[in-house]
Amino acid sequence: xxxxxxDIEKEYTNEQFVAKLRRLADDIEAGENFEIQVAGERIYxxxxxxxxxxxxxxxxxxxxxxxxxxKIEG
Amino acid sequence: xxxxxxDIEKEYTNEQFVAKLRRLADDIEAGENFEIQVAGERIYxxxxxxxxxxxxxxxxxxxxxxxxxxKIEG
Lengths: 74, 74
Prior knowledge:
The structure is a homodimer.
Chain A: E1 6-12, H1 14-30, E2 34-38, E3 41-45, E4 50-58, E5 61-71
Antiparallel strand pairs in A: 2-3, 4-5
């Protein structure tokens, strides 16, 4: 069964964000599937995920995005 | 002088991405402005940056984005 579509964004304090980053780094380094809680849902991240960084600048704003992407397997 | 608009994305290996995440976590924790190199440009991130995590699911793909955003000051 596939899960519902979702697009949710949650702001975190510096301390919370730092903790999430370190947890993510540890999990990726372990080289296994892992889970991460984001805005009330536990997300399952497979070890086949791809990692990229995006940098956008425009309209008076600048943004860095540390992206973790994967295909959903049927 | 304002810098040019930009939208660039670069894929990293697991090891590179983990190193970038840890560097980012350390820099945010230090509570000061910092710089990070992304796809050949050194990005200056002010300590007023906001931190959020976005989760998207749809079209057979799933994505987590760890976002660092800030307004460009004139």
